[in-house]
Amino acid sequence: MYATLLDGKAVATATKEALGPRIAALAERGVTPGLATILVGDDPASEVYVASKRRTATSLGIVDVHHHLSADVTQDQLDGLIEQLNDDPAVHGILLQLPLPEGLDGEEAVRRIDPAKDADGLHPENLGRLILDQPGPTPCTPTGVLRILDHYEVPTEGRRVVVVGRSFLVGRPISVMLSSKARNATVTLAHSRTEDLPALCREADIIIAAVGQPQLIGLDWVSDGATVIDVGINRTDDGLVGDVDFAVVSERAGAITPVPGGVGPMTIAMLMENTVALAEASAYVAARRRA
Ligand code: NAP
Questions:
Q1: Nearest protein Cα to ligand 1, atom 40
Q2: Is the C-beta atom of 213 inside 6 A of ligand 1?
Q3: How far away, in angstroms, is 212 Cα from ligand 1 center?
Q4: Averaged over 10-26, what is the pLDDT?
Q5: How much is the pTM?
Q6: Catalytic center residues
Q7: What digits encode the pLDDT tens for the residues 197-210?
Q8: Whose CA is nearest to atom 41 of ligand 1?
Q9: In testing the pocket of ligand 1, which one of 200, 231, 234 has its CB within 8 Å of the most ligand atoms?
Q10: Sign of CA dihedral 17, 233, 238, 194
Q11: Long-range contacts, 246-250 (Cβ 8 Å, 24+)
């Protein structure tokens, strides 16, 4: 393999270790961060993701509050649970695992989450803050991608980035974050209607794939030395694969994330970091009220 491996698992471990002193400082103030996860239905992939998030929270000393609702729950019942968690002082972060089963409106449910408890950074108020470059919780997967770039000192300033996939969960926030004045990349946000995507990607210094199509991005999409970040997680008969054909692209790219072990672990680490930051913000507000 020619490319440098961008080891998301290692970066995630370092990110979680850095939370230790912050969690200890909160404990000294009598605060234990709490993360509430909501899983609706029986989607096997969602079950795996939520189990992993809960395990990680527990391992860090974050209180794990979990609600598993059946797929036939009503929107009102789901909204009611979110309101209840909004009012629970032991819960600092709320994660609603998406997508929701048919018949439920995920965007509406996310809007019900108190923006001050929005551990996933997907509430419209927090996405608005992101566009305005204001502080607040940022979406976990996009933030995890940026942390990998930072960790390996991949420059973004003035670089041409092609983000493939424009979902509000991944591609769109990444494009906003990379085109911010802090990052100064020149970003093209591509999607299923983009023409001649391989040619567009060949012009890129950095390609970020968030599509959900197994191994879509092949050798002729990538220029020599480009950085390739693979967000995709696709379950195939051969196991988990990304949106990038790793075996061939890693012979041409300068740096590449693997699947698994790339962006996935970072998503979970950023969820933990967001939860701790929300607990810190809540403790700060409580202390100011008392003063
Ligand atoms: P999504 O909501 O389905 O969005 C997919 C995007 O890809 C859409 O914008 C779609 O275009 C575009 N697209 C689909 N086929 C395309 C093609 N042939 N060429 C170019 N663009 C194409 O998916 P998502 O939630 O963003 O997730 C994307 C992938 O990332 C999935 O594999 C998911 O499992 C994975 N994921 C991983 C993590 C992690 O932690 N690693 C977190 C979240 C998601 P249109 O808008 O035109 O339809």
A1: 264
A2: yes
A3: 5
A4: 98
A5: 0.97
A6: 53, 97, 120
A7: 999 999 999 999 99
A8: 264
A9: 231
A10: negative
A11: 246/215, 248/218, 248/219, 249/3, 249/217, 249/218, 249/219, 249/221, 249/222, 250/1, 250/2, 250/3, 250/5
Can you list the domains of the chain with their CATH numbers?
A: 29-114 (3.40.50.10860), 140-265 (3.40.50.720)
Any atom of ligand 1 within 6 Å of the Cβ of 271 = no
Of all protein residues, the one whose alpha carbon is nearest to atom 42 of ligand 1 is 141
Q: How far is CA 100 from CA 11, 45, 75, 117, 186, in A?
A: 29, 12, 11, 19, 34
Please tell me the distance from the alpha carbon of residue 97 to that of residue 7, in angstroms, as a whole number: 25
pLDDT tier, 1 (very low <50, low <70, confident <90, very high otherwise): confident
Instruction: Indicate if ligand 1 lies below 6 Å from the C-beta of 210.
Output: yes
Could you read off the pLDDT of 133-142 as tens digits, one per residue?
999 999 999 9
Q: What angle do CA 223, 228, 229 make, to 5 degrees?
A: 165
The response to whether residue 171 sits with its C-beta less than 6 Å from ligand 1 reads yes
Nearest residue (CA) to ligand 1, atom 19: 192
